[in-house]
Every structure is written in structure tokens, then in C-alpha cells.
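Next comes a single protein record:
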Amino acid sequence: MKTPRQHLLLALCLAGSLGLAGAAEPANEAKLSTKKGIGLPESKGMGTAQLEALKVGWYYNWGNKTALNTRKVFVPMVYSAKRAAPANNADFVLGFNEPDHPKQANMTVLEALEAWSTVTAKARYTVAPAMAGNPITGDWLPAFLKAKPKVDAIAVHWYKGADAKKFIADLKAIHEAYGKPLWITEYCPQTSASSEQQPDLYTSAQVADFIAETSTWMEQTDWVQRYAWHHPKAGTGRLFDDDGKLTATGKAYAKDRR
């Protein structure tokens, strides 16, 4: 029979063991924002280290599968009618990438509608094709949606500078036009990388302020379901430098804005 002192010692030992076990557990992914993600070009050497550094909850790579071993949620994309659908059932699938652009998916509305079943067949939740042009005033997306394909959310690409108020106003207009949740799958102040011929239009501080205001608003807006920064090759929009370390922009994006 154990004495009261022995019971106390046993309890303390158990408590200590549980405390150590809890300390050794990896960070809980559920604590991360489920909205914040990243378009991750795995073929260019970006991987799990970048996902962890940015503290994102999900990612995509413009393809239908990933080679990464990570607890982050991977969302496949059917890039165009020439690309295969995900091999396995997926909770979410992104539709064609900029079919209105000749250097991207480059599809007519009819071609997209005929191939749309390859997108919806393996997905519980389907995100519409993302436009290069204006999703409201352009011809492509209104004509596509008029045919009433299975679409659960609207994808948005936005490259119109570092004006957070303009960004928010544009998203509100798109949501009002279609009445569906939004996935902002590409956004950044500049459309292309900077160079000597095309210098940065915005300072790192301006980009960081843009991220802070827009991320906070998107986290607080119910109908914005997901958002993902577009990482350019160079310039103040870059999330990582040449050594793979977070830039000032990367640190701003990694911050929890909830």
C-alpha cells in the first residue's frame, strides 16, 4: 500500500512526464491561419523550409500533385485542359490558370466548359478559373459562369500596385458581382520582377504596409476564404532573398494578422 508521500511523488512524476511530452510535440498546424497560403514553385527549389518560415496553412504549385512531405494542406490545380486532374479525390481543386491569356492556359470559354468535368470530378469544392484580365468587365469569366458550371468560389489574380484600399474595393466588387466566396490565389504590387531597366515601383516599407492592411482585412472577412502571395523573382515583392532567408516582405507576410 502506497503512503500519501508516495502518491504525491507519483503524481509529480506523471505531471512532469506529461509536461515534457507536450513540450516535445511539433507546432500545432491548427494554430496557423487556414486562409493564408502561398503559390510555391517546387521546381525552383522552394519547399518545406519556405512553408514553415512563412507560417502558412496551405499551398499550391500550379500542378495536380506535390512532392513535399508536409502537414500543410496542398491544393491541386488543373492548369489547363492539357493537364491531368488530381489522381486522388481532393477537398479543394483550383480551376484553369488564366485561360484568357495566350501565354497561360489559353482556352476559349467553350473549351473550358467541355473540359470542366476533369476539374470537378475529383473535388468536393471547386474554384473557378483565375483570370489574367478583369474578372467582371472582361468577356471570359461572365460567359463561362453564364453556362452555370459547378463553381463554389471565384479565383482572383491582382497586380495593381500597393494601394490596399483599391485592393479591398476590387475584391468587394467581385464578390458583389458573383455572390460567391473568393480565393485570391495571386497578388503582389508588381506584375513582374524588377531589374535595372524596370526598377521597383514600391519600397519594402510600402509593400509591408500593403501586406499588413490587406492581410488583416482578409482574415476578418468571411467571404475571403483563401489568399496566397505571388513571389516574384526579384524586387521588393520577394519573400526570400538569394540565400533563402526571409526578406522584409517575407517577414511581413509571415506575421499572424488574425
User: Anything to note?
Assistant: The first strand starts at residue 36 and ends at 39.
